[in-house]
Amino acid sequence: MRFSKIKDNDIANGLGITMSLWTQGCPHHCRGCFNSETWDFNIEKEFTKDDLKYILDSIDKNKIKRDLSILGGEPLCSQNVEGVINLCKEFKKYYPDKKIYLWTGYTVENFNEIQKEILKYIDVLVDGKFEEDKKSLAIMLRGSSNQRVIDVNKSLKQNDIILYEIG
Ligand code: SF4
């Protein structure tokens, strides 16, 4: 898995404060993407054990309680998905009560078997490509209204897509 940055204190990508990780590389190339510098799979850096340790050791640093957000780029493309699953699995081992938010351009109904693995570890999934004609600044956690904010735990329990209740 490659990534471009880790932001310790993020208030724009989650509810409350999160530590946010931007994975590098995206195959979707949505028109109007606000983050096109994350498309290239060959730049930025490989996510290492030291980066994992940094997240695990720093998630509550300075006594600030944070959840974890994983954005892109595309966290669930074949180049990144296994690294992201490993990160989420390790994170939940140490912090089972913290939320993990994850953004993907894929829709959950079309996840392949490897991508489905991530559902065991994350709490909130924002799915779907960014669609410029549906862009809105008024909707929380999403860039365009076709995207969905999914409550993963409830969806798995009810075997249906249950939207996350915000606030
Ligand atoms: S999925 Fe996200 S990062 Fe990738 S092109 Fe679409 S908006 Fe940009």
From TrEMBL:
Keywords annotated in UniProt: 4Fe-4S, Iron, Iron-sulfur, Metal-binding, Oxidoreductase, S-adenosyl-L-methionine
Leader sequence residues: none
Domain of life: Bacteria
Repeat listed as a keyword: no
SUPFAM superfamilies per record: Radical SAM enzymes
InterPro entries: Aldolase_TIM, NrdG, Organic_radical-activating, rSAM, rSAM_sf
Essential cofactor(s): [4Fe-4S] cluster
Parts forming coiled coils: none
Entry EC number(s): 1.97.1.-
Alphabetized NCBIfam families for the sequence: NrdG
Family label: Belongs to the organic radical-activating enzymes family.
Chain's role: Activation of anaerobic ribonucleoside-triphosphate reductase under anaerobic conditions by generation of an organic free radical, using S-adenosylmethionine and reduced flavodoxin as cosubstrates to produce 5'-deoxy-adenosine.
Designated name of the protein: Anaerobic ribonucleoside-triphosphate reductase-activating protein
